[in-house]
Every structure is written in structure tokens, then in C-alpha cells.
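Hmm, how's this folded?
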Amino acid sequence: MSGILLRDILISARQECVQMRHFYIGVEHLFIALLQIQGGLASSILEEQGQTSDYVVDTIRRKTDKGASQVLWVGIPYTPRTDIILNIATDLASDNGHEEASERDLLCAILDEGESLPVRVLKTLKVDTQKLVESARTYTPDKEPQPPDIRVMFGEEFDSADTIQRDQLFVLRRMFASHSQIRIERRLTGFSGALILVVTPIHPDSREDAPIVVKIDQTDNILDEVQRYAAHVKNALPLQTARLEDNPTAPEASELAGIKYTLVANSDDVPQDLRNRVQIKGAQGLGLLIREGLYSQFSKTWWQQRRPFRFQVWKEYDWLLPPILTLEFVPDKTLPENANVIKVPVNRAKLKIKLKELQFGDVVALEGFAVQRVERETNLLKLAIGFGNEADKRAYKIEVKGLNQTAGPYFRGEVIERLVGTVWKTRQDLLLDAARALEPDFDLDSRWIPVGKNNIPNPLMAYEDLLDRHVNGSLSKIHGDLHLGNILVGPNNSTWLIDFAHTRDGHTLFDWATLEVSVLGDAVMTLAGNNWEAARKILTHIAALNAHATPPLKNAELSDAIASVAAIREIVRDCLTESDNWYEYYVALALCALRAITWPLMSIGGRRVMFLVSGLAIFELNRKTHRGSGTETPSPDETDMTDHLPNSIAWEPEPRTDQSPVQSITLQNEPVIKVEPLPYDSEEFPEETAPSVQPIESDSKQHLDPP
């Protein structure tokens, strides 16, 4: 006989059904009991297909959900299907000469029967159930599993200052168990906690495979990404791009997992991400790569697959911002009389008032929120109004600290009936902390921020009302995290996208606002500097782009960087729902830029310009809304983002005093774009203080024409 006996498994299954408040034993409880056996057969054969027991258990629990607390019958009966499964397991044990069924017999019975909920869940997760059946009959777990003895080398381009943690190396070796050694060529950059590497696998006979991209992250993140890739990406990729060909590697003994991105049609050259390329070579040709390399490849099956989509801003963008509340967990569920209750569905108007009134230490009860993540090592529970990758389900984030075993077990996707905590910080507190870290030379409590002779709205005072607005936009497949670190470039300027952890159907312009934020932080501000004066100077250039012009620049490198922003704006114009109506883009840019001020890995100069860009985008929204420039008319139930703009407010870039020749912005292999300030267009800028700009013209018919 092999493995744990059926009688012991039934005890665990009974505990699972009571914990889930089902009060019957179904096949799902039996299967979860099998997965909870440490080093057991079920978890071992699932690991071969890149799944972990915890991930599968969470998925099954989401499918069944918790039952009512009221028990409607006596005892804990078996379901009819459970009786069938147990009879099959007993017969299998008898056929093998055993007096009692074991975990192998029960697992084979569940897989052979093939119609139960756990099997349906495995098929949803793209697990090869036929292969599982074969493994269940023959698999013998190693008594003392050892990590493969893979030699890890480092290439010339790997930064010796970078460190790879021991647990990351463990997963990396498991990913290349069929090779004798690997060479880590370089580390790719990003703002997440994931480790992304370019790796060259080497066979025992010294043959080298083409370099591939490896991503190692928390197991849930990796397995979620695999599911999103299958659902949104696999059948919508151009021929020459990164693909997930192999199963993920998810060792049961580790909290981490890994996936491999195969770069189809790649040569032996080591690819690099655009952020690294900009740091080494500057921004020359960056706009061309984005437009001709990236957009032209993916637009047909991604951003140009647009469908009309009217949405309230919070449904697409609330999740970008810090949690609306961070609470300290309170085990006692007895509420004091003055407790605040926040429940799903959320009443936005009442919640906005309530959040302004909450103080440190106030008691808050949450009802109906879903568990997005359980971080047991830090005792943190992350909640939202729903579960899933869709933006609206991740809105209204709340974090609960100090969770412990007395709080009871939680699983991802579970809907919390009630959870009580005391206020530690609000979203406004967290944004204020991030803004104070920028060491502003202006008053963060002021409604307006001075930029030269102009004033722009303080985004900290305006973002909440911005979330209430409605947008007439479009819905398409989006990458969801389109920054320079996730765009790879190889020989002949070939480009690939990697990292599909946030890929979904969403607001089409979200990707391009995200990419503009990345270009401003990584390409523009690295050249301009980190102080507030540099940030304000760059803002005048962005204001010129908003006004259908590109600013005259003396610095050629900075001209290349600003030209790449202009190239993004050209793509945006192609994706606008209504021709030349930039309202929906300024909404996306305002919130994507505000999000970036909370990124500690972005330079302080980058975060400073993000704060100003957010304010400028809100300024443009106000001007279009209040001055009737043909943009969307706000719905009657909307709250205006700010008071009506003072009549004296207008955007006025600093006058040009030098007599130097007119500068040009040039993209690699692009025609020269002439920039020459001329009188403003009175229809676009009705005030006397309007900026002096004109549309850009080119000597060629194929010209870069910013908005």
C-alpha cells in the first residue's frame, strides 16, 4: 500500500467542509484533502504541470464559495458522487490486493470518474488530466528531492552589483533541469518585485540555445499570468514576438514560481529592454521603435480592436491609486455604536464624505469585499469590491494589517461577510506621504500649483472628483503594464512584448498613458535633471504638445526624448474614440501620472514631473469641460472636478529670448520636424495669454504630427 490511508483523508475532508460551511462531503473536499498532504502524490504530479496545490485549492474554493452559517440537516453526509468515487477507490485498492484505499486509489478514482468539480477546475486551468491519470498510477515521489546541480554563470553585460536571491536561484535551476549550465546575460528592469532575466541555456555538450527571457515572482502572480496569457494573448500575438511555450515551474517547496518567454525568430544576440537601451544609447530612434516596431505589430489585434465603451472613470482607474483605507485588524466583531460601515456595493457619494471624516483609530466594518491576496508572511489581507483581473473588480482597494490565525482562514476570491479594523491610513494620507517625499517648493494644501506665470490644479485636491466623471471611450485588448522595461528590442530593431501579468480588455488609451509616464520618467527626466526647475521646464514642453506643437529645444538628446513622447501622442490620436477629442486621454494621463508619484524606484525627478503632469492633464480637462471645446458633456449626476477655472488662468509658456537658429526634432529614419513658434490659434486658445504655437509641418508627407 502506498501513501496516506483513506480514513485519514476523510478526516481532512471533513475539516475542509466545516471550514467552508458546506456540512456535506463532496468530491471537492476529498481533492483538497489530497492536495493538503505534505509532499503528497496529488501535489507532486500537479507540480509537473506547473501548478501548485495552494493555487488549485484557492481556485476550487472560489468555485464552491462558502456556505451559509445555518445548518439545515443533522450530520455531514456524503454527496451521491462522493459515494461513487469512494466505491471506485475501494475497488481499486481491492484489485491491488490492499485492504483499505490510499491516497493513490482515491486520486485515481477522482481522475478516472472525470466529471467532478475538481476535474472541471483542472481543465479550466489547462491541466492535462489524461497525463495526470497516467502519473497518478506510476509516480513515485523522491524521498529526498534535491535541486538540479545546474552551473550558473554570468555574462559580460550582467551588472555585478545586482544580486539574485537564493530562493530565486533555486527556481531558476529547476527551470533548466535538462541543461548542464545557464548563463545569465542581463537583468531586465521594471518597477515590480519580479526578477526578469535574459538567460542562455547550455547543453551538456556545450551547445547553446538562443537566449530566452525568464520571469520569477510570487507563485500566485506567475500562475495568474499564465491564465491571462492563455485567455487574452496566446491567439492574438504577431508571429515574431515573445510567447509562453512551456509550463510554468512552480516548486511546492518554494513561494516562488517561474515562466519562460521564448523570443520567436530571435537571433543569438542578447535582447535588451527599452529602458536599458535608453540608459545606454539615449532616446534616439525611440519614437520610431514605439510607433513602427511596437504599434504597427500589435495594433491590428490589440489596440485597433476597439468597441464603444462608456464608463465612469473609477471603474477603470481607481485600482491604480493607493488603497482607500489601511486598517489594523480587530478580532472582536462586536461593533461600537459609532462604528463606520463600508459595504459592497459601494455608494460613492457617501463613501467620499466618510473618507474625509475618518481619523486615525476610528473603527470601520467592511462587508461584502472580496479577498484579492493573502500575504501570510506579513499578516496582510488585500481586499477589493470583486475578484479578478478586470479593472472594476480591483477598485476600492483596502488593506488589513495584523491579521493572525484567530481571524480564520481566508482564500483568494472569498467574499468577506464582515471584517472589523481601526483606521491606520487613508488614501489621501498615502498620497500626501508620497508628495511630501518629493520635497515640494509649494504648499501641498493649496488648490493651485504655480508653474512660471501659470497655475495648474493640485492633483491631490482634484483626483477624487475626477474618478466620478464619465468617459465616452473604447474597449480593446491592452497590455496593462506597458512601460519601457516590458518592451524588448533585438537585432534590426525587432521588438517584443513581455510580462502579461495585467493583460486584459480595458480602456484602449490606458496603455499609452502608462507608456508616456514611463518615457517621461526614464528617458526625459534622466536628461533634464531631478530638481523642480527641470520638472517645470519639461512641463512647458508637454504643454506645447497639448497645444498641437513641439517646443524648440537646443539639446539634441532631449529633443529625441521629447520626440518619443510626440510619437506616443500620434498613436493616441489614432486610437481616440472621437477624432481630436483628447478628453479621454487626459483622464488616463492624469491618473497614471498620479500613480507614479508612489513608485520608489522611479527617480525623484521623474516623480516630480509626474505630479506636475497630472496637474496639467487635469487643467486640460477643466478647460475643455468648462469652456465648451466640443468634448463630452458631463452627465447630470457628475460632480465637477474643481470649481470653475478663474478667468485669469491660461497656459503661457516662458517666452523665448534667444536668437539661436530654430531647432529640430529628428527620429531615426524619420523626416526632420521643423519647430518654429508662430501666433496661436485663437479658436483653440481664446484668452489673450494663450501660448504661441502652431501645428508642426514636415518636408515629407510622412510626418510626425503631434496633437
Remarks:
- The longest strand covers residues 470-478.
- The CA atoms of residues 341 and 365 lie 5 Å apart.
